């Protein structure tokens, strides 16, 4: 089979979407665990953040893959949404989607758009200042700045509220996305029921954990 | 205390009303090129035990008596096995009941005074021919692309039962083969995806030794034809599995995805 045909095929796009989603969920999980240390011990958070911010493998290999993964996931999501909408030129006068599927599964583009807007805000808040600090201004290494930078961002009630709402939408995105990604890569067997429970747990624990972290720093500092 | 189990689900049965009065909102479209619109028809004297198609027969009798054009709709066996009847009823493919085609949907699922929307299955790959009749020949073309096995039928064909098949595989293949190609999966999918149909056809052969010989070409060709027909992409909402009158499982889509990726890497 010609490779160009594979790249154009609906299933290859679906699998690519799922693989990028799985990668982003792995990233989300490690981000969650690192941020959670900020609640318990600022020194631990600082030292892990310093390692992640200065390790060459993380900085020059994993970080570019992550940025490309984010760009690929939302670009492909938008492309597929347009294609899927064009597959039904005339809509139903009455459609009862709630009778056979969850809101989260039918509205991934909405929850995804909110998460994308949040990621842009997050890049503006943390990633771009970090890049400027390290690579434009070329400041000296400071292993203790991360915790204070984190706490500073959550002083604003508006920003904290935006973070909380975004994580609610992320929860809905993961509610469908976690299990959907496994189904797309062909994983549907006797272990699927347990995997579904793990997926729903992930979709609740991680986003609500991030909300807890944001509120914790907002009210404690 | 002994418990009595009722075989019939009485929740949906309105004992008080023997004659139902309904308002039908039906998509009317003169031909494939014409603009269509929803037209309202009041209808009376409908009994709860009538099938949905019998109710439409009565409406058509009334329309003919009045000199109006009857509503065109697909139907054939009226036994729930041919896959010919379609209809998107009150926002669901084959209506609000589960595990049935429209011909096996009964009016007891509705209440006296209800308004019922009746629309054709909607998809670019299922163009409307007239009123509620849609052209589902895109499914035929997908089948032609690979939904078969090549056997010598010259008289020397080996009995299928001489080839041992694992019981689980045989059962799963049989379940997949239950697909009647009605198109409810496409109609109900928010993306108009045909993946449940194609997955069922791919699976019913992929699971059996007779089907393995052409498995690689089959999945590549059928998916390629599916994409060429203009169906959307599956986003795993699971709506197709819920609305499928034959209970075709999403497991088949996962199997097709595996088959497709493995076939692509081989090819």
From TrEMBL, chain A:
The chain crosses the membrane at residues 57-82, 103-124, 160-178, 198-219. One of its GO terms (cellular component) is membrane. It comes from Flavobacterium sinopsychrotolerans. This is Succinate dehydrogenase / fumarate reductase cytochrome b subunit. NCBIfam families: sdhC_b558_fam. InterPro entries: Cytochrome_b-558 (IPR011138), SQR/QFR_C/D (IPR034804), SuccDH_FuR_B_TM-su (IPR000701). It holds the Pfam family Sdh_cyt. It comes from the Bacteria. Keywords: Heme, Iron, Membrane, Metal-binding, Transmembrane, Transmembrane helix. The keyword Cell cycle does not apply. The keyword Nucleotide-binding does not apply. It is found in: Membrane.
From TrEMBL, chain B:
GO terms for molecular function: 2 iron, 2 sulfur cluster binding; electron transfer activity. Its cofactor is [2Fe-2S] cluster; [3Fe-4S] cluster. It comes from the Bacteria. InterPro entries: 2Fe-2S_ferredoxin-like_sf, 2Fe2S_fd_BS, 4Fe4S_Fe-S-bd, Beta-grasp_dom_sf, Helical_ferredxn, SDH/FRD_Iron-Sulfur, Succ_DH/fum_Rdtase_N. Transmembrane segments: none annotated. PANTHER family: SUCCINATE DEHYDROGENASE, SUCCINATE DEHYDROGENASE IRON-SULFUR PROTEIN. NCBIfam families: PRK07570.1. Belongs to the succinate dehydrogenase/fumarate reductase iron-sulfur protein family. This is Succinate dehydrogenase / fumarate reductase iron-sulfur subunit. It comes from Flavobacterium sinopsychrotolerans.
């Amino acid at each position: 089979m010609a490779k160009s045909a594979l790249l154009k095929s609906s299933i290859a796009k679906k699998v690519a979407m799922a693989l990028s989603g799985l990668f982003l969920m792995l990233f989300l999980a490690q981000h969650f665990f690192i941020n959670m240390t900020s609640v318990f011990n600022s020194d631990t958070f600082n030292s892990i953040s310093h390692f992640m911010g200065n390790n060459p493998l993380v900085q020059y290999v994993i970080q570019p893959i992550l940025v490309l993964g984010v760009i690929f996931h939302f670009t492909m999501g938008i492309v597929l949404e347009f294609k899927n909408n064009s597959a039904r030129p005339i809509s139903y006068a009455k459609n009862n989607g709630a009778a056979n599927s969850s809101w989260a599964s039918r509205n991934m583009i909405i929850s995804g758009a909110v998460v994308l807007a949040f990621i842009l805000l997050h890049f503006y808040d943390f990633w771009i200042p970090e890049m400027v600090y390290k690579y434009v201004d070329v400041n000296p290494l400071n292993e203790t700045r991360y915790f204070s930078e984190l706490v500073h961002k959550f002083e604003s009630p508006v920003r904290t509220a935006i973070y909380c709402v975004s994580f609610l939408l992320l929860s809905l995105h993961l509610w469908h996305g976690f299990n959907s990604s496994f189904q797309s890569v062909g994983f549907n067997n006797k272990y699927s029921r347990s995997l579904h429970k793990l997926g729903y747990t992930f979709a609740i624990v991680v986003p609500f954990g991030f909300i807890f972290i944001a509120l914790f720093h907002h009210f404690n500092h | 205390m002994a418990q009595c189990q009722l075989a019939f689900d009485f929740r949906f049965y309105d004992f008080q009303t023997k004659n139902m009065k309904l308002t039908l909102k039906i998509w009317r479209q003169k031909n494939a090129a014409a603009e269509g619109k929803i037209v309202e028809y009041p209808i009376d004297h409908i009994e709860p035990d009538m099938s949905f198609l019998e109710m439409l027969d009565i409406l058509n009798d009334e329309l003919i008596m009045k000199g109006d054009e009857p509503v065109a709709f697909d139907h054939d066996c009226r036994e729930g096995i041919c896959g010919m009847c379609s209809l998107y009823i009150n926002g669901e493919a084959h209506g609000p009941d589960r595990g049935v085609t429209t011909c096996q949907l009964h009016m007891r699922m509705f209440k006296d005074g209800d308004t019922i929307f009746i629309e054709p299955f909607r998809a670019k790959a299922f163009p409307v021919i007239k009123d509620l009749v849609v052209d589902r020949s895109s499914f035929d073309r997908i089948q032609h692309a690979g939904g078969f096995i090549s056997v010598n039928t010259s008289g020397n064909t080996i009995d299928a039962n001489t080839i041992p098949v694992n019981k689980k595989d045989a059962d799963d293949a049989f379940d997949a083969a239950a697909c009647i190609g009605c198109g409810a999966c496409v109609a109900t999918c928010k993306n108009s995806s045909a993946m449940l149909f194609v997955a069922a056809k791919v699976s019913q052969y992929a699971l059996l030794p007779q089907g393995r010989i052409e498995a690689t070409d089959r999945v590549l060709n059928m998916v390629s034809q599916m994409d060429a027909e203009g169906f959307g992409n599956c986003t795993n909402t699971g709506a197709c599995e819920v609305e499928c009158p034959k209970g075709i499982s999403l497991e088949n889509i996962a199997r097709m995805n595996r088959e497709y990726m493995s076939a692509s890497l081989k090819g």
